[in-house]
Amino acid sequence: MTERSAEPGREDLAAAIYSELTRLVRRIRGEASELHPGLSLAAYTLLLYLSEVGEARAADLVVFFRLNKSTVSRQLTELVTAGLVDREPDRSDSRVQIVRVSSAGRAALDGVDKTLRARMQTRLESWPDEELAIFGRLLARYNELPDPPMPRPGEAGAREGAVRPARSSTTP
After folding, report:
1. Is residue 152 domain-resident?
2. What are the tens digits of pLDDT across the range 88-114?
3. Residue 93 burial by CB count (10 A; 0-12/13-18/19+): exposed, middle or buried?
C-alpha cells in the first residue's frame, strides 16, 4: 500500500484558495448591501466599474462583464431608479444610452468605501507590514492573470450546467 503524502497537492491548494476567495466574495456581497438597501451585488459591481471608468454604454458593460443584455439592462434600471446612476443619450448616436455615476451615487460610494476600508484596516491591524505587502503583491499578481478559456458545454472539462462567471473586481 502506498502512503499518501500529508502535504497538500496543487489541486488541494487551489481548492483552498478558491474556498477562501468565495468567502471573501460573500463578505463583500453582504457589505455591498450597505450602499443602498436591496441593491444587488451585480448592480453594485456595475456601479463600482462605472466609478472607475467614468461612463460607458450598456453594450460595453455587456462585453466587459460577459453578461446578457437583459441582465445589464435590469441592473442599470435598478441603479437609475435608486438615483445612483444617470442615463442620457449619446451625443454621437441618440439610439445609444451613456451611463455614469450620479452625484448621489458618488457620495454613497465614497461613504461605503470609507466604511469598508476602515473595516479592512481593523481586520488587518495585527498583520505585520511585510505580510500586508506580500498579500497585496500576491493578490495583484492573481488579478493580473488573464482568464483561461472556459470549455463549452459538451467539450472535455465542461461541467454539466456550469455557468461562466462574471468578471469583476469583486469576483475571484
Report:
1. no
2. 998 888 888 899 999 999 998 888 888
3. exposed
